[in-house]
């Protein structure tokens, strides 16, 4: 899988499971991408309405656009529903953050036409591959 190509082709990212807690990894990834990337970012969490003035959507289906990438910060037991939602909205890439790996999700995502990246940090890969 060509991570650099995926990152270059991506124009918009939905961060699913973003937290308003600055100590959570999802918050740090969002802050980094907001500052260091040209991506249009959409935040998704049904328990938060806004973070630092940025609206947070309750679900992927509620987004005003179809994001290119869905970056996932959810526990493993929620991955199937996130995959189903990602397929339903028509995103191109499902990115499972560091620590998330599920071969069934990867297989089913690929079968549905998704690029699936697992167990990788979007912030780290963006910094290493695109911020030269």
TrEMBL record:
* SUPFAM superfamilies from the UniProt entry: NAD(P)-binding Rossmann-fold domains
InterPro entries in alphabetical order? CoA-bd, NAD(P)-bd_dom_sf
Identify the SMART domains for this entry: CoA_binding (SM00881)
Task: Output the Gene3D superfamilies linked to this UniProt entry.
Answer: NAD(P)-binding Rossmann-like Domain
CoA-binding domain residues are 6-100
Alphabetical list of PANTHER family matching this protein: COA-BINDING DOMAIN-CONTAINING PROTEIN (PTHR33303:SF2), CYTOPLASMIC PROTEIN-RELATED (PTHR33303)
Protein name, please? Answer: CoA-binding protein
Annotated source species:
Mycolicibacterium moriokaense
């Amino acid at each position: 899988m060509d991570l650099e190509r995926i990152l270059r082709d991506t124009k918009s990212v939905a961060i699913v499971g973003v937290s308003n807690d600055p100590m959570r990894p999802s918050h740090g990834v969002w802050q980094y991408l907001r500052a260091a990337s040209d991506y249009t970012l959409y935040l998704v969490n049904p328990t938060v309405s806004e973070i630092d003035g940025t609206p947070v959507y309750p679900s992927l289906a509620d987004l005003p656009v179809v994001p290119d990438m869905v970056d996932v910060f959810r526990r493993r037991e929620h991955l199937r529903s996130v995959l189903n939602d990602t397929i339903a909205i028509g995103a191109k890439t499902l990115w499972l953050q560091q620590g998330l790996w599920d071969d069934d999700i990867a297989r089913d995502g690929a079968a549905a036409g998704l690029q699936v990246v697992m167990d990788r940090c979007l912030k780290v890969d963006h910094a290493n591959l695109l911020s030269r």
